[in-house]
Amino acid sequence: MEQNTPFWKKYLDFKNLPLDSKVFLGVIAALLVYVATTLPTIIKSFTNKNSISIDGTTYNIEDLEKEKPQIYVKYRNDLASLLKESFSQFAEAKILELAAKQEGLESPDDVLKKGFTATEPSDEEIISIYNQYKNQLGDRPIEEAKDLIRKQMLMQQERAFAQNIQKDLIKKYEVKFNIAEPPVVRMEVPEGENPTTGPKNAKVTIIEFSDFECPFCKRSQEVNRRLRDKYKDKIRWVFRDFPLDFHPNAMYAHMAVNCAIPQNKYWEIFNVLFDNSGDLERSNVDYLVTKNGLDKTKYNQCMKENERKLVSEIQADIQEGQKFGVSGTPAFFINGIFVSGALPYEHFEEIIEKELN
Q1: Within-domain flag for 151
Q2: Alpha-carbon distance 198 to 146, whole Å?
Q3: Number of structural domains, the chain?
Q4: Do 201 and 165 share a structural domain?
Q5: Within a domain: residue 260?
Q6: Is residue 179 in a domain?
Q7: Sign of the CA dihedral 299, 304, 306, 311?
Q8: Is the pLDDT of residue 78 over 70?
Q9: Domain CATH for 320
Q10: DSSP designation for 333
Q11: Residue 262 and residue 209 share a domain
């Protein structure tokens, strides 16, 4: 009895195949062998992009995110900021081109100058500027500096006019950024036994690592106060010491403010030291803290007898901060979300509002 040969068996019977079919299958087989031998190299080539090799082991972005989330967050934030800045420059040039075409102007630069009329500065205004910046002008006589000041004031008028034109154009042409937000990465940063203000059950906790001698930290205090004034009991604020090595007076100032804790004067002294951030020599720190309410005898005793303990506690804060990616000041963790630098009020407000809602 004759049986039908299975379809697949006919094609696998290589000996009985026509020549052209043999050639075709041979080419396919060679191609498969080539792909099989080169695919690992291709895959490796792609996976090695945006990676680092250490002692023969390759680490990629996923490893960075998993093992060092604080560094990964900074990378994503920096990338988003750079992308927004790049789009901003593109948009600025594009809307000027559109405006110039619409208004029949020869050059996009003409858009920013259209309608501008300079106002000659008065002698009184020039003298006021001269007195304010006399040192930067090399103490040259007013008569020599007058023309330079006049030109600078006229240029400033033109820049201010151009900036207002740009703002109007952004509204007119509806510039909107559509940039993916960096992923939210939270870190479990402990409060430790550090000074706090605000209730423990607040929905938002902000841990600040800062330095009394850091000018950026001083600048951020105005933003910090505004946030505390607005949100009141909705946020809890924790301060952790992070005096930087290159600020010679910072460590002593941090020791001094910690000696205000036993006298229940921490936040008063905290504000005093930041208000005098540029003048924190030891003698002045001692003067400031006692002038503003600390008992001199108790303060001196604290600084002398607890010096080693104070330094140890401050260094523990520094090490803790470094563990979570703090390398400069100020640095903040808003419910564990890392924010680096003295950023505008609106940046913090946006994060806090999201956390509250």
Answers
A1: yes
A2: 54
A3: 3
A4: no
A5: yes
A6: no
A7: positive
A8: yes
A9: 3.40.30.10
A10: E
A11: yes
pLDDT band at 49 (very low <50, low <70, confident <90, very high): confident
Lowest mean pLDDT among 140-144, 221-225, 304-308, 310-314: 140-144
Residues in the chain: 357
% helix / strand / coil in the chain, to the nearest 5?
Answer: 60, 10, 30
What is the rounded CA–CA span in Å between residue 357 and residue 352? 9
Q: Mention every residue, 6+ apart, whose C-beta is less than 8 A from residue 100.
A: 106, 107, 108, 110, 111
| Helix, strand, or coil (residue 239) | strand
Residues 161 and 78 in one domain: yes
Structure-block tokens of residue 116 = 């501008």
Confidence of residue 138 (pLDDT cuts 50, 70, 90): confident
Q: Stretch 199-216: mean pLDDT, rounded?
A: 97
* Domain edge (last residue) among 61, 85, 105: 61
In-domain check, residue 109: yes
Tell me, yes or no, whether 119 and 54 share the same domain: no
Please compute the mean of the pLDDT values over residues 19-33 and round it to a whole number.
63
pLDDT for 235 beyond 90: yes
Are 206 and 281 in a shared domain?
A: yes
3-state secondary structure of 136: coil
What is the C-alpha to C-alpha distance for residues 162 and 166, in angstroms, rounded to an integer? 6
Among the listed residues 312, 317, 297, 278, the one whose alpha carbon sits nearest the alpha carbon of residue 286: 297
Compute CA distances 248 → 222, 277, 345, whole Å.
Answer: 24, 12, 29
Contact at 8 Å (CB) between 63 and 47? no
- Residue 214 pLDDT > 50, yes or no? yes
DSSP-assigned letters across all residues of 60-80: EHHHHHHH-HHHHHHHHHHHH
Residues 52 and 151 in one domain: no
Same domain flag for 224 and 142: no
Rounded percentage of the chain residues whose pLDDT exceeds 70: 87
Residues 24 and 80 in one domain: no
Tens digits of per-residue pLDDT, 161-188?
A: 999 999 999 889 988 888 887 778 888 9
Report the predicted TM-score, pTM, of the whole model to 2 decimal places. 0.62
Residue 158 has pLDDT above 60, yes or no: yes
> Which residue range forms the structural domain that includes residue 211?
196-356
- Contact at 8 Å (CB) between 126 and 110? no
